[in-house]
Specification:
The complex is a heterotrimer of chains A (204), B (256) and C (468). Chain A is an alpha/beta fold and 204 residues long. Chain A has one domain: 3-Layer(aba) Sandwich (Rossmann fold). Helices cover 24% and strands 24% of the residues of chain A. In chain A, strands 1-12-7-4-2-3 form a 6-stranded parallel beta sheet. A 4-stranded mixed beta sheet of chain A has the order 8-5-6-9. Chain B has 256 residues and is α/β, with parallel strands linked by helices. Chain B folds into 2 domains: 9-127, Rossmann fold (3-Layer(aba) Sandwich), CATH 3.40.50; 132-249, Rossmann fold (3-Layer(aba) Sandwich). Chain B has a 4-stranded parallel beta sheet with strand order 2-1-3-4, with helices on both faces. A 4-stranded parallel beta sheet of chain B has the order 6-5-7-8, sandwiched between helices. Chain C folds into 3 domains: 5-11 and 295-388, Fumarate Reductase Iron-sulfur Protein, Chain B, domain 2, CATH 1.10.1060; 40-291, Rossmann fold (3-Layer(aba) Sandwich); 400-460, no CATH class. Chain C contains 23 helices and 10 strands. The longest helix of chain C is centred in the N-terminal third of the chain and has 25 residues, at 15-39. Chains A and C meet through helix 1, helix 6, strand 9 and strand 10 of A and helix 2, helix 3, helix 4, strand 1 and helix 5 of C.
Chain lengths: 204, 256, 468
């Protein structure tokens, strides 16, 4: 098996050699891509909730509201990050089965998954997941309902700030609303491979 | 594009490039252009040796043939006086297309110099001379055709400024106005189905707006659309902007 | 028949297909325009900036490719280089064999279509399953995608329902929600049983070695949550200098492709999973694919390498809207495809030299392009190349005689007068193909050659008008 590294790089150098000058890296203020008018004077948690609604997501501010939402949807069996469960357990009364480990052989058993978010982006209504804070990638993805627990202090205003704070996590996922497709005749259908419902539980 | 790098106008003398289409088919458009420019206080010279801007061969990929014509055009429109052309398409050929095909030619500077002093008619009147209102009267509902070679130029806004200022004239909007009519030069004959389908779509939108007259700054689009409409037995009345401006001075719609 | 291949294809496209392609492209284009102009005071500044960033990146690939490679290696990923489609496919096969893998789940990646990876793996005894809903349907139908972002834009729900029934995915039901639900159920078990997940990359940051990957369905997330080995195919032109540049480009990509502020899932992946994470790949392989890109870089159309595959130029293109994607006989259809597809063929350019002709040069594609690629200029350059290489072009009138005439004023004026014959001769008897093609569907206006010049002379004879 030969690797084409040297031949590709040599073709690249050959292609670029005749250029009298190369296009410079533009200097710019990332502010150009920020929806400043939207953000001005807004409480970020409120704006996040508003922008999540716009993409068919839902932001809630109390565990009781989350439980009520799950009950109303008939979602009684789910997963919860073991680190979150002690605080949340008291809100889940009878009739719920919540596991703190995710068994991939029973993927269809879990109707909801509760995991920690690393942050959120108010501007776009986005939840940020990191590998280090997500107890299980599958639990945050496979169940119909995903509930991301977001600390108020971790909400970024805009996409530009969130990019600047990507950090060194190997797998950062921005979730902006539920999984969706418009492949069939352009009709919007939610819940293709990932969650059909994307919730945020905003905590202090 | 070089239409963004023009030197400010000083005099009021221009060279008219009538365009090959007006030379062959639309003499009244060229005549109207002369009258409109003269009304604006401009002295119009007409270099007799002029033929075509070179665009057909340029678009067809025969750049050596096109360059031959462009070189002739550069020689014909010598001097410093601006060149005014009643076509956004021919203007764009000179301030953009010709520059592209002369990139590696030794005489590129002469081609660029011509491009810098070439103006589409409405752009010249409004942005060159500062004309903001047009006198006279033209009682009609006008649909204005935004020809594609005016994209990225100030020509459409200029034409609309003039039209909207004319007493009695109402500019009517129509659907998908930014879409191409399907002319496209040789495209019209090498892709006849697509060209016709695009034209039909344009005609449907324009007819739905029920204008009295369909006006453009480019006769090429009008030749295609008017020809399609006439063939299906439902002709539409097409005019060049210059004809409307001239007829407004005469108080209304002319014979055409 | 003087019409070109794409025109003939368009003429035979079923009316229903044309109508649905037209409607969905028009709707997406209009939503995109509204969104951008509602949100930004000057979207063109953003497009220009994004174009400058990408142009800088491709003109400095000699710096950025090794930089990205070093970062990826430091992050624990393995990097491979593939000069050709065959080499890229062979890398994937080797990685799978070395792991004893037989089953791959594939997210949607244009470069995998370009190198025909799924067919290659199939021929070598591997299962490579498409997981994007549209691509999955393409795969079970042995069809080809017809749009960069909406691969089955040419299919209707009844055709899809029939395919699902045939494949044993339930009784006939053409409700889009039911179709989607069935695919969800079917595919999630495939992810969990797969050995390898393959994705593309929308961007690769040289600074961090991070790939950025966007999907709406979440299939790429599932591929890298369920499998133990992640293979990334990335065209070498996907590099951007820094992470901060991703902010600009991601803001434009979702809006341009589907009129979303951001695509639902934006994944930033810079290596195998975190040691504390139970799910996902312990191995990550990134394959840098050339396959003709360095030749494009060396040529005069290198701006096309800025392309971020958003499909906005397809959606606005009047030709694409009428002809649909299969007319272009290429993985990349529409205006961007008309430039890129013939170029990627290298010395076989003449096979697709007709694609750049399929344009009225209206410029709408340039106007919407999020990286400001002057597509019409590139189409023109390729037309000139086709002419230089003497590629036949059906129906195109010969230009040399015309140029001769148009550079000799005396002959030109004589021809203007002689043209009056057109007013008396029946045009159908004049054996000029261009004239025939014109008059097949349009009237020709009356020939009035020389009239303007005569008018001007007569008017000026008494006293030339003085400037006011």
């Amino acid at each position: 098996m030969t690797d084409d590294r040297e031949s590709i790089l040599s073709r690249v150098r050959g292609a670029l050699a005749p250029l009298h000058e190369r296009a410079p890296l533009p200097t710019y203020d990332s502010e150009i891509a920020v929806l400043r008018g939207l953000l001005a004077g807004r409480d970020l948690a409120e704006l996040l909730a508003e922008r999540m609604r716009r993409v068919n997501g839902l932001a809630l501010t109390s565990p009781a509201a989350v439980v009520a939402h799950l009950r109303a949807g008939g979602h009684r069996h789910g997963y919860c990050d073991p680190a979150l469960w002690p605080d949340l357990a008291p809100h889940f009364a009878d009739g719920f089965t919540v596991e703190t480990s995710f068994d991939r052989t029973r993927v269809d058993d879990y109707a909801f998954g509760i995991t920690r978010a690393a942050g959120a982006i108010a501007e776009s209504g986005t939840i940020i997941l990191h590998d280090r804070t997500t107890a299980s990638r599958l639990a945050a993805l496979a169940p119909w309902v995903h509930i991301a627990v977001v600390s108020r202090a971790d909400i970024f205003g805009d996409v530009t700030q969130a990019v600047a704070a990507l950090g060194d996590d190997r797998n950062v996922v921005w979730c902006t609303g539920p999984s969706k497709t418009a492949d069939v005749e352009g009709i919007l259908i939610e819940g293709v491979h990932g969650p059909g419902e994307q919730l945020a539980l905003i905590v202090p | 594009m070089l239409n963004r790098e023009r030197t400010p106008l000083t005099g009021r003398r221009v060279q008219l490039m009538a365009t090959c289409l007006c030379d062959a088919f639309y003499d009244d458009v060229a005549a109207a252009t002369v009258e409109v420019l003269e009304h604006a206080g401009v002295e119009v010279a007409f270099p007799e040796g002029q033929t075509c801007c070179g665009q057909p061969a340029f678009n067809g990929g025969d750049w050596p043939a096109s360059r031959r014509v462009v070189r002739h055009t550069v020689r014909t429109f010598a001097g410093e006086d601006p060149v005014v052309v009643p076509s956004g398409s021919c203007a764009a050929m000179l301030f953009h297309g010709a520059v592209l095909e002369f990139e590696k030619e030794p005489d590129a500077p002469a081609v660029e110099a011509l491009g810098r002093r070439t103006w589409e008619l409405a752009d010249y009147l409004v942005n060159g001379l500062g004309v903001r209102t047009w006198p006279g009267r033209y009682p009609a509902r006008v649909a204005f055709h935004r020809s594609c070679h005016s994209r990225g130029t100030d020509s459409v806004a200029a034409a609309l400024t003039l039209l909207r200022s004319i007493a009695g004239l109402e500019v009517v909007e129509f659907g998908e106005a930014e879409q191409c009519c399907g002319f496209g030069g040789t495209f019209a004959v090498t892709f006849p189905h697509l060209s016709g389908a695009m034209g039909q779509l344009k005609l449907d939108h324009v007819r739905a707006a029920q204008p009295d007259v369909y006006v453009s700054g480019d006769m090429s689009c009008m030749m295609h659309l008017g020809g399609l409409a006439a063939r299906e037995g439902r002709p539409i009345r097409t005019l060049h902007l210059a004809q409307v401006l001239r007829d407004a001075l005469r108080g209304g719609e002319a014979k055409s | 028949m003087s019409a070109q291949a794409i025109d003939r294809f368009a003429a035979t496209l079923p009316a229903e297909t044309r109508a649905s392609v037209y409607q969905s492209t028009k709707t997406t284009h209009e939503k995109r325009t509204r969104l951008l102009f509602d949100q930004f005071p000057d979207p063109d500044r953003l497009r220009t900036l994004a174009g400058e960033i990408k142009q800088h990146a491709i003109e400095n690939l000699d710096t950025y490719l090794p930089q990205a490679e070093a970062r990826l290696r430091a992050n624990g990923a393995q990097v491979h280089w593939a000069g050709t489609a065959e080499a890229a496919c062979a890398h994937v096969l080797r990685i799978m064999r070395e792991r004893g893998a037989t089953k791959m789940v594939k997210a949607k990646t244009m470069v995998s279509e370009e190198i025909e990876l799924a067919d290659y793996l199939g021929r070598h005894g591997m299962e490579a399953l498409e997981t994007d809903l549209g691509e999955f349907i393409i795969q079970i139908d042995h069809d080809h995608p017809s749009h960069i972002v909406r691969p089955i834009i040419h299919k209707n729900r009844r055709e899809i329902a029939t395919s699902f029934e045939r494949e044993g995915l339930g009784a006939y039901n053409d409700d889009p929600a039911t179709i989607t639900r069935r695919a969800r159920h079917h595919l999630r078990h495939k992810y969990l049983a797969a050995d390898v997940g393959l994705t593309g990359a929308n961007f690769l940051s040289a600074e961090s070695g991070r790939i950025a990957l966007v999907t709406n369905e979440g299939n790429s997330r599932f591929s890298v949550a369920a499998t133990r080995c992640h293979i990334v195919l990335v065209g070498i032109e996907k590099i951007v200098p820094r992470d901060r540049d991703l902010g600009i480009l991601l803001n434009l990509l979702g809006r341009s492709a589907t009129a979303q502020d951001l695509t639902v899932y934006t994944e930033f992946i810079s290596g195998p999973r975190d040691p504390a994470q139970p799910d996902g790949p312990e191995e990550m392989h990134v394959i840098f694919v050339d396959n003709g890109r360095t030749e494009v870089l060396a040529g005069e159309c290198r701006e096309i390498l800025r392309c971020i595959r958003c499909g906005a130029c397809l959606n606005v293109c009047p030709i694409y809207r009428q002809a649909s994607g299969h007319a272009y006989r290429s993985v990349y259809p529409g205006p961007v495809g008309a430039v890129l597809s013939p170029l990627l063929l290298k010395e076989n350019f003449p096979q697709k030299a007709d694609l750049p002709k399929a344009s009225s040069l209206c410029g709408a594609c340039h106007e919407v392009c999020p990286v400001n690629i002057p597509i019409p200029d590139l189409l023109l350059r390729l037309r000139a190349r086709a002419k230089e290489e003497n590629v036949p072009s059906p129906g195109t009138p010969p230009m040399a005689p015309w140029a001769l005439l148009a550079s000799q004023p005396t002959a030109w004026r004589a021809a203007l007068v002689a043209g009056r014959a057109l007013n008396v001769l029946p045009t159908r008897l004049i054996p000029v193909p261009a004239l025939q093609a014109w008059t097949a569907s349009r009237e020709l206006p009356a020939w009035r050659g020389g009239e303007f010049r005569r008018w001007l002379k007569a008017r000026r004879r008494p006293a030339p008008p003085a400037a006011r």
